[in-house]
């Protein structure tokens, strides 16, 4: 997954997987993998409920079920590659984020069971699974430290629930016009929607470009 990013967009420093991996000038400077034992329990639990998991490792994502059309549709909307079927990937490789595919009606099976994880819904049929208490703000903090930036000079754009901590942490948090009400409530500024080039508009409003 990560190995394709620099070649595609021409960058060598970034925060990804909800802040669980930070890359600075091509080198990983922070990583926060999910605990294998808890992930193994979640894998069995999801399998018993016929719910698909997508494991996100450093270089690729894999799924616990093949040809899941909901997985393919949701990731296709994000221009992410369709994961291959590798149900034991989490035993052999570090996993930094997991996508759990279930409806809101079924999420209580997991949210109330695992003290190790936070479950954050980003799609009608899917939730992010990350380490309890972790967030994009963690990754941004490590990125700032690696670059020697001043916090008050940092900016972030967000539109979803997994952006809340980050928008509150950085010097200036900017919510997308198409974002959730919760993100707009904590942001310092609300820009236009993504379909209206809201990031470019926000950068201009902040005099960054």
Automatic annotation (TrEMBL):
List the transmembrane segments.
none
Instruction: List the SUPFAM superfamilies hit by this protein, alphabetically.
Output: HAD-like (SSF56784)
Q: Which residues form the signal peptide?
A: none
Taxonomic superkingdom: Bacteria
Q: Which GO terms describe its molecular function?
A: isomerase activity; magnesium ion binding; phosphatase activity
Q: PROSITE patterns attached here?
A: COF_2 (PS01229)
Would you tell me the protein name for this molecule?
Bifunctional phosphatase/peptidyl-prolyl cis-trans isomerase
């Amino acid at each position: 997954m990560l190995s394709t990013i620099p070649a595609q967009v021409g960058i060598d420093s970034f925060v990804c997987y909800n802040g669980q991996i930070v890359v600075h000038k091509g080198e990983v400077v922070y990583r926060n993998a999910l605990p294998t034992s808890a992930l193994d329990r979640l894998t069995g639990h999801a399998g018993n409920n016929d719910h698909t998991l997508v494991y996100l490792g450093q270089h690729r994502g894999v799924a616990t079920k093949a040809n899941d059309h909901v997985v393919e549709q949701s990731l296709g909307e994000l221009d992410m590659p369709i994961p291959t079927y590798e149900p034991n990937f989490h035993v052999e490789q570090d996993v930094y984020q997991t996508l759990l595919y279930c409806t809101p009606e079924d999420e209580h099976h997991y949210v109330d069971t695992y003290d190790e994880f936070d479950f954050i819904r980003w799609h009608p049929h899917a939730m992010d699974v990350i380490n309890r208490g972790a967030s994009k703000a963690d990754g941004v903090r490590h990125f700032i430290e690696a670059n020697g930036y001043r916090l008050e000079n940092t900016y972030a754009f967000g539109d979803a629930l997994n952006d809340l901590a980050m928008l509150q942490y950085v010097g200036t948090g900017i919510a997308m016009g198409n974002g959730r009400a919760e993100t707009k409530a904590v942001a310092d500024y609300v820009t236009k929607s993504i379909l209206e080039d809201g990031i470019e508009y926000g950068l201009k409003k902040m005099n960054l470009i």
